[in-house]
């Protein structure tokens, strides 16, 4: 067993009381916390019914912690899985509420809905509100907008915005223990005009009523109800405090106020509470209720505040860059309101005899590249650099870290075109899942409206593509990984290997693609699809037959038979329909397994919402196909992703999704003033939509109105928008720091001019490049 470092030994020497541990990236936080838990199990003289409670952020960490603790206590001759408990806070809250559901106003048989179900319910409630109350929100639209654009915004933009604003407000209200009835009372008593808070309250009320009808709670309800139960039931609280005399909390920088309140109640007067985290890695603050200041305050006030500042992950020059980022954020950021986004300790390298020595120092392996690239050109340049690097380093790991998911999807397409192996499983859904969902969704979409020529044409693309795929698997003139999705085509599978098609095969592929485009265009121009599918008298196919090749005619006849078959299936229950379509398109086990998951998802959705027809169920598949929601397909996502399993491949990940991981070479991409604003003049901010007046951030303004109501204070419009800019800028500095510290040996940072070619390199890009040139580069 490796010997602990002196700083780790200080943590492991904990006997009791409060201890706040600030741990830098790569400092062995999990290694240390699991050993502390195992030591307490072995030495803390626990009674038979007592346990050390370890609270983690996500489910994937539960198994990781449990297996490590088991290994350690078995080495001491003790039974595994005894004397400790590892769980997420949501699991803990669920058990507390289950113990006394009556105190939360719930029945014994309540159930918990997941994020997908919650989103579906909220979408319906928000849509209903918007249809009846559109005028109450249009006052926030800018007057500098054409009638055409205004109609487009009202139809396509505002409905989604209303849902997102309401979702954020509901989470915020629940984290503050505020019910919809209480919020309505505040509005009534205030008498002030608060249109955003009124909108949030109305949708919140409808959402909770929908949950009540289903005898359900969401994850936010679990947390607030758990605190309510602990406040009321002293007997239960006393029993839990006795059961868990020690509480260890991981990733504490992502804890919210209400989550902290639950743990503080469980700890009680004994206060045997260890909180470990890194406030510099708090990158979820702007879209959750997490507050890194809570951990900072705890560390400052704790009985013990050891630091885990040594890290053997990165080479010294990368560590210098990370430390300089901390220094710059504290001392040199031009906006005082943003200063202090990062705090000490600085990262220290390990000693020579450390079991995890830092990689050799190579300042030349850090690069800042600004070539006034478009986003497409940036992706192309990075991909071109990675191809030769992978050939020279087949046993190493590398990653492309992108600020938004769409850029990751585009990067996957580029790598595929260049034959560069990659894995995209850290994106919300994998390319395999997206394509399987899209293929079936196109048919379901058509069956929901069989009179649409455009939908019929999209079906042809999917049907013909599946034919070519099947033939390609048996024909060496086709690359076996080639597929034809409407978005330009990405091959099936999460991890791609190089396509080695011969020039002749590639030429044939291009001809097939051209045929698919041409025939689908022809189908899209059918005036009345029924004259093609079920002709009675007038036959569209007979009228165009003279202009078709024999192959085209044969395919259109075969496609017609297939569409007739699909139409006959349309009366089946949705689960059976999806399985039948899946068997039509796929034969490989992985994609059939995905289809089975789609079938189950839609079957449950249909049972849960019996009023839904094919159009609404088709929307569910479209969400997966367009990469808007993670779907638990075959293969792992970030929950159990290990970069070491993907040596010789490019890992594509969002910057947020990369947290907790590390690679030998990292490409940070899209570091411009849009994705990394500094809250200085001329910056634009993602949460501020162009169609709102005065640059307002409606999510922030809604929460400000709720705060004003709860605190009995006046509300000043736009103040919350300004503070949200500062908060967002602070979080983006932390995101930059997190990405820098993902790199072990090589770090490449690039920027682009954005979709509309009007962005500049981010201020942090420019400042860190200067610091690198002056203080790090040789």
Could you outline the blueprint of secondary structure elements for this entry?
Blueprint: H1 6-12, E1 18-23, H2 29-43, E2 52-56, H3 59-75, E3 84-88, H4 89-99, E4 111-112, H5 115-133, H6 147-175, H7 180-190, H8 195-213, E5 216-217, H9 219-232, H10 234-243, E6 246-249, H11 257-267, E7 273-277, H12 292-301, E8 307-308, H13 316-331, E9 366-369, H14 375-392, E10 398-402, H15 405-417, E11 422-423, H16 431-448, H17 453-472, E12 495-496, H18 503-524, H19 530-533, H20 540-544, H21 550-569, H22 574-585, H23 589-608, H24 614-625, E13 650-654, E14 663-668, H25 698-711, H26 719-740, E15 743-750, H27 763-776
Parallel strand pairs: 1-7, 1-8, 2-3, 2-6, 4-5, 6-7, 9-15, 10-13, 10-14, 11-13, 14-15
Antiparallel strand pairs: 11-12
Catalytic activity: ATP + H2O = ADP + phosphate + H(+); Couples ATP hydrolysis with the unwinding of duplex DNA by translocating in the 3'-5' direction
Binding site for ATP: 23-30
GO molecular function, one term: hydrolase activity
Using brief descriptors, characterize the structure shown:
single chain, 778 residues, alpha/beta, Rossmann fold, 4 domains, 6-stranded parallel β-sheet, 27 helices, 8% strand, 3'-5' DNA helicase activity, hydrolase activity
